[in-house]
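Reference record:
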Amino acid sequence: MKLRTELAPAPLTTRIDCPDSTLLLGSCFTEHIGQWLRDYGLRTTCNPWGILFNPASIAQNLTNCLADAPREPEICHQGGRCLSYDHHGSIWADDEAALRDLLADIDRRARAAYLAADHILVTFGTAWVFERGGRIVANCHKSPASEFTRRRLTVDEIVEQWSPFAADKHLIFTVSPIRHLADGLHGNQLSKATLLLAIDRLRDLFPTHVEYLPAYELLIDDLRDYRFYADDLVHPAPLAIEAVKELFLVDAASPQLRRYMDEMSPLVRTLAHRPSDPEAPEYIALREKTLAEIERIKARTLSPPLPR
């Protein structure tokens, strides 16, 4: 008896290998994969501008960090903090000058990560955007709703925004399976459909550079059971996140990378364990032994070695 509509995706044409550098951008879904890869010591840069949900804001930040003359940030003041409408609320400073310096430093590091990246993994969350004075914002930062207008990006807009990067880099797109209930269930479906159609168009235009990892379909069509969701019934539960990681390993990771992660897995779990007494000599000895083994595996497998 068949009890699931199981996903059977095709492996990516170009897979991520051990020494590769990967830039991860987009929604909070990206954070799970980015942290996981970092835990295994892989070369990753994740969300330098913070979590961003719509394709336009991610593309604008990429464009900005690569530009010879970046556009001036639009700054707002909330709760004694200076924030940028182009960035997540976790990026802030005490005054405008400090914020500009911080954003310039972030852009410098993001530019370096982009130029060094062998792969860029992008997760789109929503096609709905807010505009302030005709300019799309990444975050409203609790500013008055009257300052913004809301609309849905078109497929053509997303394709135009992302074509320069698709022509330049190997892009792996995903769509976040997290439902944006504030848009309404129908509005959420329209949004996700727009994102999927835009990615499909980019795949047609840049078949050797653009690929799609079906994490959205895995949760929405295969794991369609509330036990795979958190208490809010929207975000994926830990079990679902593990299923997405497995999808990533099967579809996006090279055989060498899978072997490396299999070998590293028990060591990573050991380091993640929280002992009752972190100062105990036995635990300190175990931790030092584990770290030494991790460095040995990295030196043997990751070429060139990762910088410390």
The radius of gyration is 21 Å. The mean pLDDT is 93. The chain has nine helices and eleven strands.
